[in-house]
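Q: I'm building a small set of examples for a reading group on sequence design. Run inverse folding on the following structure and report the sequence directly after it, with nothing in between.
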């Protein structure tokens, strides 16, 4: 005969003090921390809420959440992946967004996107779109999993000397900016698109409707932009063969 022994110590989970202030919900889908983080072992609200993921982002754990679907679409349209890794895919020209779920907060992500770094474009998202985008970034972190070790910080030593010498700075940088793998951020222009990751699959397919850029198409573009886009403001740029080769190296993402 089988005897089942009940052992009270084994079943006693630590108290969840969240429930002293909040009614439970979605209990069958996990602990409060699974969706909201925070610290359930304290009664003090400030401590309990440290690192809290607010309700409006908490859909990041639910692949079917409509706000998550919209957020993913926004990230796709804005081509965040031409510079960042998001959900394990993208170029490594800037830091990976997959670590942010684990080592940042939604508020810090919001601040970074609303007041972007010098070489990151300003996307001017509406507040609700920013919520959805943050939800997608958190979901990407969940998909990628907690980083095994600290990710090395990307540090670029963009010296004035480099800024002076290179073909991008001289021939394109007055109007364009570019994150380059070798030299970090180049150019000062804000009047024309940020060209980071131009020849990668993560750059918008803006050559002609639905067509990606490649070296051959870029060459045609530089020779005569109006032949591709009749209304364009950009004038032809003539490069010497060695300058062209240098440009290709600078634009490369790996
Ligand atoms: C001492 C009471 C107290 C405890 C403990 C507490 N909360 Fe709260 N919580 C509040 C109050 C009050 C608010 C309303 C907003 C505010 O005052 O910050 C709130 C707001 C929230 C919100 C809504 C925030 C938003 O903007 O969507 C979430 C989510 C939340 N709490 C989750 C948690 C979780 C998870 C825990 C446990 C880890 C927890 N809370 C522990 C009192 C508490
Ligand atoms: C499966 C994910 C999930 C779990 C688990 C979860 N929540 Fe939430 N929570 C959400 C979502 C999503 C929202 C946004 C509103 C909604 O969908 O109900 C939310 C909203 C909230 C809010 C804000 C409500 C409001 O009206 O603004 C509070 C407070 C909250 N949750 C507390 C908790 C507490 C406490 C627990 C643990 C008992 C918990 N949640 C567990 C996903 C979750
Ligand atoms: C042209 C390149 C580029 C594009 C495109 C771009 N970013 Fe960035 N982003 C950067 C750079 C450069 C930084 C600052 C340095 C770093 O974090 O690597 C940055 C920083 C960030 C940070 C702060 C990261 C941290 O570690 O705190 C977030 C969040 C972010 N970007 C989100 C986005 C999102 C979301 C998109 C798409 C809507 C996007 N970025 C598109 C270049 C870019
Ligand atoms: C005097 C300013 C200026 C210079 C210099 C310049 N461009 Fe442009 N470029 C523009 C403008 C403005 C646009 C936007 C054209 C449009 O939307 O039709 C553009 C668009 C582009 C595009 C299309 C991007 C897209 O997604 O639509 C590419 C590629 C490009 N430039 C590459 C270059 C390269 C490479 C150089 C340097 C060899 C360069 N440009 C130099 C002003 C300039």
């Amino acid at each position: 005969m089988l005897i089942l022994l009940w052992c009270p110590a084994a079943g006693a989970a630590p108290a969840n003090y969240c429930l002293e202030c909040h009614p439970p919900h979605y209990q069958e889908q996990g602990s409060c921390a699974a969706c909201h983080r925070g610290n359930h072992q304290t009664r003090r609200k400030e401590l309990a809420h440290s690192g809290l993921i607010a309700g409006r982002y908490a859909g990041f754990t639910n692949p079917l959440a409509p706000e998550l679907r919209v957020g993913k679409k926004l990230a796709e349209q804005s081509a965040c992946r031409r510079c960042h890794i998001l959900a394990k895919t993208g170029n490594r020209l800037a830091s990976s967004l997959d670590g942010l779920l684990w080592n940042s907060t939604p508020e810090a992500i919001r601040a970074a996107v609303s007041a972007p770094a010098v070489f990151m474009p300003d996307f001017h998202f509406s507040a609700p779109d920013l919520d959805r985008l943050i939800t997608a970034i958190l979901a990407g972190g969940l998909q990628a999993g907690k980083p095994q070790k600290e990710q090395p910080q990307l540090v670029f030593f963009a010296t004035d000397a480099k800024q002076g010498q290179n073909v991008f700075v001289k021939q394109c940088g007055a109007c364009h900016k570019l994150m380059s793998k070798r030299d970090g951020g180049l150019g000062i222009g804000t009047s024309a698109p940020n060209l980071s990751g131009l020849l990668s699959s993560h750059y918008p397919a803006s050559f002609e409707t639905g067509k990606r850029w490649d070296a051959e198409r870029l060459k045609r573009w530089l020779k005569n932009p109006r032949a591709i886009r009749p209304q364009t403001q950009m004038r032809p740029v003539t490069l010497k063969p060695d300058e062209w080769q240098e440009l290709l190296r600078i634009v490369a993402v790996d």
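The longest strand covers residues 178-180.
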